[in-house]
Amino acid sequence: MGTVLGAMRNVRWHELQHAYGSASQVPGVLSRIAWGDAPTSDEALSDLERWISTPPVFDSTAATVPFLWELAATDTVRDRAGVLDLLATILAAGNAEHPAWTRAAHDAVAVGRATAARLAAAPDTPEAGDPSPARTVRAAAARLLAAIDRHACPACAGLPPREAEAH
User: Fold this and answer.
1) Which of 20, 143, 152, 163 counts the highest number of beta carbons within 10 A?
2) Are 8 and 71 in contact (CB under 8 A)?
3) For residues 114 and 136, what is the distance between their CA atoms, to the nearest angstrom?
4) In the structure, how many helices (H) and strands (E) does the chain have?
5) How far apart are CA 58 and CA 22, in angstroms?
């Protein structure tokens, strides 16, 4: 798989769940987002959103978020803005029956704040067409950065990062 997404092999995906069962398919979907053509990447991003974040988050969500940050920061990924929007969706989602999953997913999104800030501040590169991909990524990163900075939810309120996982 190369360096992008190389650490996916260290996650026990088969032990994690998403909305439709085992998360063992998540690495393949992340790979399609990373290297697929536009239709393949779009379909994979849509599948991943349904599986891990809409409406509740799952135990696989927190495991997936670091790879989403990696994809958002990789220039060759076709829909980096879509990846950033998925991270914002995860930050807004929760699971009332499993607040520790919610907290872990939200913490994983918040850990990438510096990446969102870097992407939001990236210079615009002149490209054909409007809006430019760089401008679209910058706007999505700015929205996510604002969401991280104003985030408050019952699962995250009043606890320092990661403390909820011990409960």
Assistant:
1) 143
2) no
3) 18
4) 7, 2
5) 11
CA distances 161 to 40, 102, 136, 145, 149, Å, are 35, 12, 30, 17, 14
- The residues facing 3 across adjacent strands are none
Residue with tokens 């069962």, as numbered in its chain: 21
In this prediction, residue 4 has a pLDDT band, given cuts at 50, 70 and 90, of: confident
What letters, b where the CB count within 10 A reaches 16 and e where it falls short, cover 11-30? Answer: bebeebbbbeeebebbbebb
Q: What are phi and psi of 18, to 5 degrees?
A: -125, -170
Q: Tokens for 8?
A: 């996916």
Model-level pTM?
Answer: 0.88
| pLDDT, mean of residues 6-23 | 94
Helix 38-52 × helix 26-35 angle, to 10°: 150
Token reading at 33 = 């987002």
pLDDT of residue 155: 85
Token couple for 16: 């994690």
